Amino acid sequence: MKPEILDCTLRDGGLVNRFFFSDELVRDLYQTNLEAGVDYMEFGYKASEKQFNRKDFGKWKFCREEDIRQVVGDNSSKMKISVMADVGRTEPSSILARKDSVIDMIRIATYSSTIPEALELLEDCHEKGYETSVNIMAVSSDTEAVIHEFLGKLCDSPADVIYLVDSFGAFYPEQIRNLSALYLGYAEKKGKRLGVHAHNNQQLAFANTIEAIRCGAGFADATCDGMGRGAGNCSMEMLVGYLKDKQLQELPILEFIEKHLIPMKEAGVRWGYELPYLLTGQGRVHPSRAIQFIQEGCKDIAGMFAQIAAGQ
């Protein structure tokens, strides 16, 4: 069965340009997703305005209700709207009751070490009437025992979707297959669905996404042209082309990329596979190291390889 497709171009892509997207681009992306048959569009983060200065970021870092409604109105369409709430960086009071919002789903991002805080935020969003997912980041750094522990807790929670997230782009398809089976073993018993969010450090985001789908993932994240922090994400155009579902259309996505994202790259905004991201993916370390390496114009790839291999 076709999974629910979630476009997170604004949210993950916003990590590339500090969420400074033009209003025209956002409106065009909304229309593109409608025409393409995407199921969910994620507008960005619900970040705390006490922690982050609005002068330093575009509006989709904060996803105020009025800003979303300027694009979608009442969203009289089948496509649903989501935002991400980052544990420790979101004020629950900024999330309205579902009946007062155009947002349908709150996706809670957490590390395994902050699961208790994630559960509190999850309960709040559930009680307010939202669909919910929990996206557990950096699981490539967790032991199997830790994964079993948090899956047990999350599958006893009100979460609708439990996400397998390859934050560092470290996994190979066989690992995705094994982890999907593990996640589903917990989730299906409690009526939860599995989602997948892959990063492209080793040019495996697309392969890992379709592997999870083949294993039973009911939600799949993607971005136009793979736009996302560092090496980026699974490309929406590749995923839609692979699924070959009559409800999905690839052409609107290609037209959006041609109009907006190719000029953005030509203007110097940078994302996508590069050797430093390969090394952080292979080393299972945060891509921020590779981002800094690239931004500083470093050229010593072999030196970076030796440092990561030595655990430095």
Question: Can you give a write-up of this model?
Answer:
- The mean pLDDT is 97.
- This protein has 312 residues and is of the alpha/beta class.
- The chain has an 8-stranded parallel beta barrel, surrounded by 5 helices.
- The chain is globular.
- It starts with a strand and ends with a helix.
- It is built from 12 helices and 8 strands.
- Strand 2, helix 3 (65-72) and strand 3 form a beta-alpha-beta unit.
- The chain has helices spanning 9-17, 23-36, 65-72, 115-127, 144-155, 173-187, 205-215, 236-243, 251-266, 275-283, 288-295, 301-309, and strands spanning 4-7, 40-45, 80-86, 105-111, 131-137, 161-166, 193-198, 219-222.
- The chain has 2 domains: 4-266, TIM Barrel; 275-309, no CATH class.
- GO terms for molecular function: 2-isopropylmalate synthase activity.
- Residues 3-258 form the Pyruvate carboxyltransferase domain.
- This is Aldolase catalytic domain-containing protein.
Helix count equals 12
Rounded Rg? 18 Å
Largest sheet: number of strands, sense, barrel closure: 8 strands, parallel, barrel
Count the domains. Answer: 2
**Got a strand count?**
8
CATH topology of the largest domain: TIM Barrel
Mean pLDDT: 97
User: Helix/strand-derived class?
Assistant: alpha/beta
CATH-defined superfamily of the largest domain: Aldolase class I
Uncertain runs are none
Secondary structure: helix percent: 40-55%
What is the 3D form? globular
CATH class of the largest domain: Alpha Beta
Please state roughly what percent of the residues sit in beta strands, choosing from under 5%, 5-15%, 15-25%, 25-35%, 35-45% or over 45%.
Answer: 15-25%
Strand order of the largest sheet: 1-2-3-4-5-6-7-8
Order of helices and strands: EHHEHEEHEHEHEHEHHHHH
- Span between N and C termini? 44 Å
Q: Quickly give the CATH architecture of the largest domain.
A: Alpha-Beta Barrel
Pfam family, one: HMGL-like
Domain Pyruvate carboxyltransferase: 3-258
InterPro entries: 2-IPM_HCS-like, Aldolase_TIM, PYR_CT
GO molecular function: 2-isopropylmalate synthase activity
